[in-house]
Amino acid sequence: MTGMADTTAGAVLEVDLGAIVANWRALGARHPSGPVAGVVKADAYGLGAAAVAPALADAGCRHFFVALPDEALALRPILPAEAMLAVLGGLFPGTEAAFLAHDITPVLNTLAEIDSWAAAARRAGRALDAILHVDTGMSRLGLDPPALAALRADPGRLAGIAVRYVMTHLVSSEIPGDPINAAQARRFAAACAGLPPAPRSLANSSGIFLGGAAASDLARPGAALYGVNPLPGQASPMRAVVRLRARVLAVRAIAPGDTVGYNATFTATRPSRIATVAIGYADGWRRALSNRFSARFDAAPVPLVGRVSMDLTTFDATEHPGIVPGAWLDLIGPGCDVDDVAAAAGTNGYEVLTALGARVRRVYRPA
After folding, report:
1. Residue 147: which residues within 8 A CB-CB, separation 6 or more?
2. Which of 17, 25, 64, 160 is 20 to 30 Å from 40 at the Cα level?
3. What are the structural domain ranges in the chain?
């Protein structure tokens, strides 16, 4: 990784762009039916889309997805002109001109959005690319059965829209045996049969590992690119991407019976050395990890003791004489990957990564 200045007092997130590219290629090998996109919404899951998206583009990725128009506007100037850049959140009223001016592809989720984009095409005097989103069970965004029926009854509403893909979003792809996966595949096939012929996009990160049932013309992995395990309960097939380290600010000796942190949730049972580290929930380091997690120092576990507070977290360094002010503890890395942190916090790897805040300094290993 790039060197860290000794003046860095807080936390550092080291991001291996080469590992992200390797994960993208590995996912592509598992999805031979069509290309694999890069989902770089939420600032590339907290890792820095301005660094991640160009690295994927340099490796050959030509399909990118974000959640919101502002994310697309930030990335458009640094992606190849021929790359598709699509906004999953849809075509917000009044944004049509920005989508058109910056060659951003809307994912159309409602009949109203379809009508607005068709009207924009008429004004532009040419066909405009779009993706149609079909809701097959998520009940968030996407064309529902009445909307699909309306399109079947009046296909002219799509006049002027060049449908690049029809997509849906899997509900439970990380559980291969969940019957909703097969039900969604059936619903999607039925919906596509009633629409004009177009390439299809189905698999997300875990969906790629469902094999033929989720094969389509374009896969849309996100979390797996960033090292989150797409196969919970099994060994991860993805390369680790991040290392989160935080600096020790102080080490103090406490006696048996002394307590640590807010609400005295930890009481020492022996003479102990408590290391205070510069990371807290203001940095996205989950308060739920209080008394439930171990960092690593020289690959050995260092228990988190007491409550995680806004700026500080405390660890029992009694067994580690090398932990002194200025030392670094590994919070995510070998022996405590992002899924381990998520399990200890009672959440998922997606939330662990996307929660990491602006005070956490990002450094990058080039692809």
Report:
1. 110, 111
2. 160
3. 17-226, 242-347
Split at pLDDT 50, 70, 90, the class of 1 is: very low
3-state secondary structure of 194: coil
Let me know: does 23 contact 239? Beta carbons within 8 Å: yes
Q: How far is CA 167 from CA 135, 217, 332, 356, in A?
A: 9, 10, 34, 30
pTM exceeds 0.90 for this model: yes
| 242-347 to CATH, choices 2.60.40.10, 3.30.470.20, 2.40.37.10, 3.40.50.170 | 2.40.37.10
Q: Which CATH superfamily is domain 17-226 in?
A: Alanine racemase (3.20.20.10)
Q: What are phi and psi of 206, to 5 degrees?
A: -70, -30
Q: Which of 41, 45, 226, 281 is catalytic?
A: 41
Consecutive H or E run containing 277: strand 272-277
Report residue 205 as tokens: 């990160």
262 among known catalytic residues: yes
* Residue of 139, 142, 205 whose CA lies nearest to 168: 142
Strand 11-16 to 242-254 pairing? antiparallel
DSSP state letter for 180 = H
Enclosing H/E stretch for 351: helix 349-355
Sheet of strand 128-133, all strands in order from the earlier edge strand to the far edge: 38-39, 63-66, 84-87, 105-108, 128-133, 161-167, 200-201
Q: What single-letter DSSP state applies at residue 153?
A: H
Closest by CA to 337, choosing from 322, 326, 352, is 352
Q: Is the predicted pLDDT of residue 330 greater than 70, yes or no?
A: yes
pLDDT band at 6 (very low <50, low <70, confident <90, very high): low
Q: Which of 226, 262, 350, 364 is catalytic?
A: 262
Q: Do domains 17-226 and 242-347 have the same CATH topology?
A: no
The helix (H) or strand (E) run that includes residue 330 is strand 328-332
Is residue 41 among the annotated active site residues? Answer: yes
**Is a pLDDT exceeding 70 seen at residue 7?**
no
